[in-house]
TrEMBL record:
Ranges that cross the membrane: 12-29, 49-67, 126-152
Name the UniProt record assigns to this protein: Phosphatidylglycerol lysyltransferase
Domain of life: Bacteria
Biological process per Gene Ontology, one example term: response to antibiotic
Keyword Metal-binding annotated: no
Compartment annotation: Cell membrane
Lineage start: Bacteria, Bacillati, Bacillota, Clostridia, Lachnospirales
Length: 156
């Protein structure tokens, strides 16, 4: 029996990376074209930016995606559908990405649902997990707001 080459074994992953890269390039191009920001203005802004702040923001963004993915993973696991950490990260990253490029508040949830359904999670469990995740997110925002009001009442 002839063994498959590394490329043949990972063909779907390679195609996936290419498709995602093309989508990212198209998204970035579209955002720049429609926003009125030129590449020169972006370059100037990046030169003036605090690299420590950019690094901290990037780490925070990855943390947000990771922990939201963990929340989704725990929710579906308790419904009887085990999911890997990497799958939770994909669910959350799809949510964040599509929420950022769509004007509606629920832009990323259908993308998350797609990947969850693709992993064999029942539609009812997917919808319940996404709804519970939205509720937890809303409660977190309300809690942070309440704590801010209690600690810094002069802001209001």
């Amino acid at each position: 029996m002839k063994e498959k080459s590394i490329i043949q074994q990972n063909l779907k992953k390679i195609i996936g990376v290419i498709v995602v890269s093309v989508f990212a390039i198209i998204t970035i191009y579209t955002v720049f074209r429609g926003s009125g920001i030129s590449l020169n203005e972006l370059t100037a802004s990046l030169k003036e930016a605090s690299w420590e702040g950019i690094l901290l923001a990037s780490v925070s963004m990855l943390g947000f995606i990771y922990f939201e993915g963990e929340a989704l993973r725990v929710l579906v696991r308790h419904m009887g559908y085990p999911a890997k950490r990497s799958h939770g990260f994909v669910y959350s990253a799809a949510d964040v990405y599509f929420s950022a490029i769509t004007p509606s508040a629920s832009g990323g949830q259908p993308a998350s649902a797609y990947f969850m359904l693709k992993d064999g999670i029942a539609g009812t469990a997917v919808m319940a997990a996404l709804l519970l995740n939205l509720i937890m997110y809303t409660l977190a925002i309300l809690t942070i707001g309440l704590v801010d009001i209690l600690i810094f009442p002069e802001v209001f």
